Amino acid sequence: MVSGGLKKILGGVLLWTTLSFSAVLVDKVVASVNSEPILESDLKMGILYYATTDRKQVLDKLVDDMLLYQFLVGRGLQAPPELIEEALQNIARANRMSLEGIAQELAKEGLTLQDLRRFLERELLATQGLSAFLEREVKVSDVELELEKLKSGNVKVVRDIELLVIDRKDEGKLKATFNSEKPLEILANDMGLNLERLRIGKGELVDALDKEVWKASPGQLVFAEDKDHIYIAKVIAQEELTEGKSPEELRQEILLRKMEARRQELLERLRRNSFIKIVQ
């Protein structure tokens, strides 16, 4: 979460030559959330941080952040001071500046390091802090994971089989040797044949055999034939494989979607139950 914010603020810092404000900053109140003020300096810091000149868009974001900040503070959470200082140091290093250099750049816009610290405290808690809070209450069930696999269309069902292929000319020998209680490996040795162990998907065997293999249950022996061969196969096991993404990657995607939905629900409730005043 911090890295995303840092990239944004780094973009803003590097845009200071084009996003310039009056050198004299009157720190008036531009909005309030449950009587807690959002200042002009917060708005201007947000313009730098989000690298946009759209004041309304930035103010809406600041109001949302304040709602989430108040919610989390009310539950005993806070952005650790060392995390805020680490973010400041990362900003300075990425811009090849000292903190004094960052302070000088901020001063050109009538802002201070303390303004930046206050801004980062709210931003970090409303993003990273909220994620930590939601991860404790939002879970992904095995059923949701299986449904996601089906929806993605990337699930491949495979079967592990043992397969013995007998030439038609050896049909008499097979009849004399075959015993349903005898393992296929022993039958193969008795007939001087190789037993194949395969992992197959639907449609990957000859038609007659494929149909029988996919009708059978694991552990069952099946028979099929064509004009040249007789096939004996045993279904060992069945497994579902997710192509492209691992189950853990799918689980993480579901988790992020659920957390974002929960965030939006929380924001809507907080907006309904809060007193928000826009001054500007």
Overview in brief:
With 280 residues, this protein is of the alpha+beta class. Helix content is 54%, strand content 18%.
What does this structure look like?
- The protein is α+β, with helices and mostly antiparallel strands and 280 residues long.
- The chain has 2 domains: 2-140 and 254-278, Porin chaperone SurA, peptide-binding domain (Triger factor/SurA peptide-binding fold), CATH 1.10.4030.10; 155-242, Chitinase A, domain 3.
- Helix content is 54%, strand content 18%.
- It has helices at residues 2-14, 40-49, 55-73, 81-94, 99-108, 113-137, 142-152, 171-177, 184-191, 207-215, 247-272; strands at residues 29-33, 36-39, 155-167, 196-201, 221-225, 229-242, 276-278.
- The strands form 2 sheets. Strands 4-3-6-5 form a 4-stranded antiparallel sheet.
- Helix 1 packs across helix 4, helix 3 packs across helix 6 and helix 4 crosses helix 6 (113-137).
- The two termini are 30 Å apart.
- Residues 1-25 have low confidence and may be disordered.
